[in-house]
């Protein structure tokens, strides 16, 4: 069952005349949580670049390892992600205000003067802070992904200029459904009861009851994300809430430049493992859809959703937006199986231990056997060699981490969903031609061959932080691995053939007949040449 959401008046925001997205954000102050996360930092960059007249941008961060939020913000703004802003608008930092806060603290850990300033000035809130670990303990997942949004919403209730609270959810919040519409669905567990239980329930008891609480959900991430949507809609009916649900967020398509990715979450970690030769098999159905949406398209949906709701106030539609590929442009795990190794051979990583290769299988026994002999055993032998050369052993540990990551993704690589995105398409239709380019939300026209090539280059350049200057050495290593792979296959074929010929008389007889025929033909060649 779906849940009704807050409906605002039919009158158009502002003056009533059409505004571009950049004009809409002009002069408005924005508050962003999760600014150091993948989506958060790309959102910050795009907001400042495409809406240069935006007011102050308040970036909530927490001190880390003794480093104050000001220092952490400077480090973030010094990254390659902000190159074009540093080049074309050197004073862009003046628009950003770091705010010290913590999602786990009461009242977000905000100082009273910070709360007063935010509630006085802020018009738009983007809440993207979350724990994205699939195997997170339920208590931490609830505190971050359910109680966190509650605290943000409570802060928003006191904002006098508030036009929108954008909650970043996930397209997989309702993953027990094959077809997911842009509506909020009621969960099996009431969020408030779970919040109350978390307060008094012992961690051990909570861990025991977690599988029963999850029900059909595969993990605590999707479970708490669905609860947060329902909770916000019902607990805060008067807030101008917008929910944006990205699918699997991958490297950028174009903005701020192709291939930007700086973490190993989701497919990025798997791509890096394939590029290094550390992972060659994956448990999944190669025919299923891989709904990987570029991060810049996801952030465009975030920015456009607020403009769409405020400018057009679409009736008969819940303010939920799916930042997904859409039904028209199909990418499968088979495409990834084929294109990823090919791209890493063309753009190799440094110090690859084997040729890049990726195979998806639904056969559990074959997967387990392959993992044991083709991953764990080579990792163990490599660690022995590391020990013998007085170096730190890492390969078994990395192999175990990759295997754990694969297990958490199995649910998603064995299934596919249909995410309807009519609201996103309607927002695109409402845009001016220039906004359709600058805030492109349509992933249906992506060229997957080109995107995956950009993605693999981005993994090498930005996630693995490898220089392009050493590409010659890396390619020489790939050629060496190709020769070694060919030699190994020949030796394996010869060995198998010899073992088989010795044990099967019929094959031995056939082998001798073939050798005699070859010898006879070789002897006749000189006479045929003379005639």
UniProtKB/TrEMBL annotation:
GO terms for molecular function: alcohol-forming long-chain fatty acyl-CoA reductase activity; alcohol-forming very long-chain fatty acyl-CoA reductase activity. GO terms for biological process: long-chain fatty-acyl-CoA metabolic process. It is an enzyme of class 1 (oxidoreductase). Residues 375-466 form the Fatty acyl-CoA reductase C-terminal domain. One of its GO terms (cellular component) is membrane. It is found in: Membrane. The chain crosses the membrane at residues 484-500. The keyword Lipid biosynthesis applies. CDD domains: FAR-N_SDR_e, FAR_C. InterPro entries: FAR, FAR_C, FAR_NAD-bd, NAD(P)-bd_dom_sf. It is a multi-pass membrane protein. It comes from the Eukaryota. Residues 32-301 form the Thioester reductase (TE) domain. Catalyzes the reduction of fatty acyl-CoA to fatty alcohols. This is Fatty acyl-CoA reductase. It comes from Macrostomum lignano.
């Amino acid at each position: 069952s779906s849940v009704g959401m807050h409906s605002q008046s039919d009158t158009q925001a502002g003056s009533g005349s059409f505004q571009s997205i950049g004009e809409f954000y002009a002069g408005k102050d924005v508050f962003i949580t999760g600014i150091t996360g993948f989506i958060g930092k790309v959102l910050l960059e795009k907001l400042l670049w495409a809406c240069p007249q935006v007011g102050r941008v308040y970036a909530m961060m927490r001190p880390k390892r003794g480093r104050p939020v000001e220092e952490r913000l400077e480090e973030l703004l010094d990254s390659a992600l902000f190159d074009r802003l540093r080049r074309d608008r050197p004073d862009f930092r003046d628009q950003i205000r770091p705010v010290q806060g913590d999602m786990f603290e009461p009242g977000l850990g905000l100082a009273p003067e910070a709360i007063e300033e935010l509630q006085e000035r802020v018009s738009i809130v983007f809440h993207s802070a979350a724990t994205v670990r699939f195997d997170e303990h339920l208590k931490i997942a609830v505190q971050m992904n359910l109680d966190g949004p509650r605290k943000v919403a409570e802060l928003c209730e006191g904002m006098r200029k508030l036009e929108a609270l954008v909650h970043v959810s996930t397209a997989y919040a309702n993953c027990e459904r094959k077809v997911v519409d842009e509506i909020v669905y009621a969960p099996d567990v009431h969020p408030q009861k779970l919040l109350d239980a978390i307060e008094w329930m012992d961690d051990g008891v909570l861990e025991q009851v977690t599988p029963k609480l999850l029900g059909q959900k595969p993990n605590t991430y999707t479970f708490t994300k669905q609860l947060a949507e329902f909770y916000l809609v019902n607990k805060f009916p008067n807030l101008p809430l917008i929910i944006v649900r990205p699918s699997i967020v991958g490297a950028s398509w174009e903005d701020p430049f192709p291939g930007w990715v700086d973490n190993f979450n989701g497919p990025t970690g798997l791509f890096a493992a394939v590029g290094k030769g550390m992972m060659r098999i994956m448990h999944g159905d190669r025919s299923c859809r891989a709904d990987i949406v570029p991060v810049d398209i996801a952030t465009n949906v975030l920015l456009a959703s607020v403009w769409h709701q405020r400018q057009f106030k679409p009736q008969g539609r819940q303010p939920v937006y799916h930042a997904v590929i859409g039904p028209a442009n199909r990418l499968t795990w088979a495409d990834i199986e084929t294109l990823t190794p090919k791209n890493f051979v063309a753009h190799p990583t440094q110090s690859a231990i084997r040729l890049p290769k990726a195979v998806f299988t639904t056969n559990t026994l074959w997967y387990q056997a392959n993992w044991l002999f083709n991953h764990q055993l080579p990792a163990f032998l490599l660690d022995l060699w590391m020990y013998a050369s007085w170096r730190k052993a890492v390969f078994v540990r990395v192999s175990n981490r990759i295997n754990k990551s694969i297990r958490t993704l199995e649910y998603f690589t064995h299934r596919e969903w249909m995410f309807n995105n009519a609201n996103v398409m309607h927002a695109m239709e409402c845009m001016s031609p220039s906004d359709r380019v600058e805030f492109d939300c349509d992933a249906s026209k992506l060229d997957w061959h080109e995107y995956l090539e950009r993605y693999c280059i981005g993994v090498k350049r930005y996630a693995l932080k490898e220089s392009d200057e050493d590409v010659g050495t890396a390619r020489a290593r790939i050629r060496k691995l190709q020769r070694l792979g060919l030699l190994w296959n020949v030796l394996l074929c010869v060995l198998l053939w010899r073992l088989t010929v010795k044990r099967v008389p019929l094959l031995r007889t056939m082998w001798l007949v073939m050798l005699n025929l070859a010898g006879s033909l070789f002897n006749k060649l000189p006479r045929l040449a003379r005639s």
